[in-house]
TrEMBL record:
Keywords carried by this UniProt record: Disulfide bond, Endonuclease, Hydrolase, Lyase, Nuclease, Signal
The protein's name: ribonuclease T1
InterPro entries in UniProt: N1-like, Ribonuclease/ribotoxin, RNase_U2
Example GO molecular function: RNA binding
Catalytic activity: [RNA] containing guanosine + H2O = an [RNA fragment]-3'-guanosine-3'-phosphate + a 5'-hydroxy-ribonucleotide-3'-[RNA fragment]
Signal peptide (UniProt feature, chain positions): 1-19
EC category name: lyase
Family listed: Belongs to the ribonuclease N1/T1 family.
EC number: 4.6.1.24
Length: 126
């Protein structure tokens, strides 16, 4: 247990009140004006990879990303795209929004991309 967690637990036991620290939002990626933390990116990556590894093969997400824009991703392989949502929830259907995590079939993050600021149906890097 980290010191801050132990301190909070001790405070709760002694006073019955815990002052929760303000969450610091460190942006791992910014798509347009939307800040995504590393935990949000990881959650979307894990959800997309799990669905892909279970063999979901239809027109929904995740699906193969063909990299028509020619991004130079740091990992190789077949790429898949999966929505990352600005409200913090993991995508489970409906409108995918503008932003995507890109990953390969080895569960490695390739990058985060967006339609925001791109021409037509293209993507740009976040």
């Amino acid at each position: 247990m980290q010191f801050s967690q132990l301190f909070a637990l001790t405070t709760l036991l002694v006073t019955g009140v815990v002052a929760m620290p303000t969450e610091k939002r460190d942006c791992a990626y910014t798509c347009g004006t939307v800040c995504y933390t590393s935990s949000a990116v990881t959650a979307a990556l894990n959800a997309g990879y799990n669905l892909e590894s279970w063999g979901e093969e239809d027109d929904s997400y995740p699906h193969v990303y063909h990299n028509y824009e020619g991004f130079d991703f740091p990992v190789s392989g077949t790429y898949y795209e999966f929505p990352i949502l600005r409200d913090g929830y993991v995508y489970d259907g409906g409108s995918p929004g503008a932003d995507r995590v890109i990953f390969n079939d080895n569960d490695q993050l390739a990058g985060v991309i967006t339609h925001t600021g791109a021409r037509g149906d293209d993507f740009v890097s976040c």
